[in-house]
Amino acid sequence: MQDDRIHYLAGKFFDGTSNEPEVQELAAWIKQNPDDELALVLENAWQNFQSDTKMPEDMSDRIIGTIFPEKNIPLAQNYQEYESETSTVNLWPKIAAAAILIMAIGLYWWSGSGGKARIAQTKPEILVTDVMPGGNKAVLTLGDGSSIILDSAKNGNLASQGNTSITKSGTGELVYKASGEASNTIVFNTVATPKGGQYHIVLPDGSRVWLNAASSLKFPTSFTGKDRRVEITGEVYFEVAHNARMPFIVKAYETEVEVLGTHFNMNAYPDEKRMKTTLLEGAVKVSKGNQSAVLSPGQQADILNMNNNIRVLNNVDTDKEMAWKNGYFQFEDENLESIMRQVSRWYDVEVNYEGNPGKEHFTGRLPRNANVSKVFKILSLSGIKFRIEGKTIIVTP
After folding, report:
1. What pTM was computed for the model?
2. Which of 186, 229, 270, 382 could form a cystine bridge with 109, CB 3.0-4.6 A?
3. Dihedral through CA 249, CA 250, CA 254, CA 255, nearest 10?
4. 148 pairs with which residues across the strands?
């Protein structure tokens, strides 16, 4: 009987009709049963419905049935069996998202034509092999060309560069600390993450930097002169220490971003068509060629790689842009190839397509700490098939 009650609550959860006590009851059950297959589905529950939107009545059954057809789960069809006299309202956006945000990191797939949901009618292909998610991995290259593999290096002092000490903290971050007067000799270090890696660095001025997978940061071990200059590739998030007398300048290929003290994210992967600089706090000036633009919080500078035109976008979803740093994949109207480029970087795999990737666009959110098989189990709901051959993912749209 308990199982039926949980299945009933799951049905209401998917349908968007749960009230607060029901959400709390379901949340408590998931916390007590983290390895249950239904709990896994709920952990990837839908988060993108509007307050006036409900999932079609039969969709909850198909979601569960598609993933776990052996479970004969009564959902929407058995609501009346358990319905209490307490009236229910659609509180999904406010109550469900807030009450179980930790476990309800959702994914809801929409096709590019008319917003019609597409759910597979057959069981997703079972993956024989699996790939672990990425983690804290990076290589530090010192001024003399020697390298330190940071993920295997012991905590504590790693090296000295002039008057700057380099340590690996107990939490795994790389910390630069200058002592005394800066040397007149400029020494550059580089931190590079591989595919499947990420890393956090504290620069000698106190600025904090997070590198996404397949990214790099080149910087001096002490900042001297009129400005603080660094170079990046890939995707990097900065929290820059304020210093009005010494602007902080980030160079990515032919683009420069100048700041005094601020929080911003730069996406400059060479295999992406656009370079994006998103401002969360403060102000930055983005320049390329003879073009420039000053951003305010919530704005994004969007630059096509092949020209100098800077397009400024307003009211950008900063949660989406920062999802990678906060442990998620988050997609908004993105095509399959864009999604798979992110999967390729984080899981350190190659991606091949059998057939045309198609023109469909998807919106949703997934945890980055899951094995790739769990990611594909959810993606398979859209009808796309995946298989793993060694370090290669074969996609059949």
Report:
1. 0.72
2. 382
3. -80
4. 140
